[in-house]
Amino acid sequence: MQKIVDSVTLRAVWQLLKWKDSDGRVSAFLQNGGSIEEARKLFGEPFGVEEMKGNLALNEGLQELIDIICAIGSPTKWDNTNARLGVGDSNTAAAATQTGLQAATNKTFKAMDATYPQKSNQTVEWRSTFASADANYPWEEYTIVNAADDTGKNLNRKVESKGTKVSGESWTLSLKITFS
């Protein structure tokens, strides 16, 4: 007799591209839907490219996802209108019961770059570009929320130090989740 195991896996990969951008041209290009490949051709290579694998799905986000799938109540999607990628400076360990970023004051939520999220097969990608004046502090935690701030439902949370963003730099953060 063959044993059958049902499961759904969410594999997350975060990518962070760090650009020198004193005149704001890189951030404007990316926020308006420009591709990373074109940005590299137009503005040169980012000075930093980092990847973070994994994160912790948060209970509030999983429950909202179930409500969306089942059309229960009035759930809010993580679409171009509602989704924000958030960063903060707390390094508090991730726990499934958390309801967003843990930073007390330094946290920033950015709307999706134009044309995001994007889907390819079972993978969805959200992308936001934080311009020169945005989120200039240590980046320690990351989330995706379905509201303008963490009053919405956070699908996940990742904790990993990625340095301190400063004025004159634009950082592009993306999250790819593959469902299998």
Characterise the protein shown here:
Helix content is 15%, strand content 34%. With 180 residues, it is α+β, with helices and mostly antiparallel strands. It has one domain. It is globular and about 60 Å long. The two termini are 24 Å apart.
Q: Topology of this protein?
A:
Layout: E1 10-20, H1 25-31, H2 36-43, E2 48-53, E3 56-57, H3 59-70, E4 84-88, E5 107-111, E6 118-120, E7 123-130, E8 141-145, E9 154-159, E10 169-179
What would you say about this model in short?
With 180 residues, this protein is α+β, with helices and mostly antiparallel strands. The protein contains three helices and ten strands. The chain has one domain (10-179).
Question: Characteristics of this structure?
Answer:
180 residues; alpha+beta; five-stranded antiparallel β-sheet; 10 strands; 15% helix
The main β sheet shows up as: 5 strands, antiparallel
Count of separate structural domains: 1
Tally of contiguous helical segments: 3
Average the pLDDT over all residues and give the rounded result: 96
Percent of residues in helices comes to 10-25%
Over all CA atoms, what is the radius of gyration?
17 Å
In terms of per-residue confidence, which ranges show pLDDT below 50 for 5 or more consecutive residues?
none
For the termini, the CA-CA separation is 24 Å
Mass-distribution shape: globular
Strand order of the largest sheet: 2-1-10-7-6
Beta-strand percentage range: 25-35%
What is the N-to-C order of secondary-structure elements (H for helix, E for strand)? EHHEEHEEEEEEE
Number of strands: 10
Structural class: alpha+beta
